[in-house]
User: Fold this.
Amino acid sequence: MDLVKADALVELALGAALLAGPFGARDFPSPVGRPVVVAVGVALVPLGALIWSRRVGLRTLVLGNALTALAAVAWLAAAPGFSTAGAALVAATVGALTMLAVGQALGVARVADGARPDSADADEQRRPESEDAQARSEKPPSTTSV
Assistant:
């Protein structure tokens, strides 16, 4: 699976956890309550779908993931009042976003160096050179007589 699809799945999973999970006012510092948790969950679901559709560029994903991870670390460090579950969810999110940002930044650097971006979809659409050569060799022989 490529990093763009993985990113989309992280957004969708976090949105689902916030919407369907037990997280509420006791899990996050004030003024975060259930309405804020639901609003963030609702926002993450279409964001995940948008990322999945590849309408968000890789550089934008790197920046968004890195900045969100940094903001979440600052929030964890500065704001008292997280429950164990709330702190674990935010810490896991920081870890996932950091790994995605690093992997995606490496992908941006590879493309800048002239490499093709990695994509499972692109890999499926490309035929190896050996298959192309085989297809050319399977052409029916010409029927010219001498």
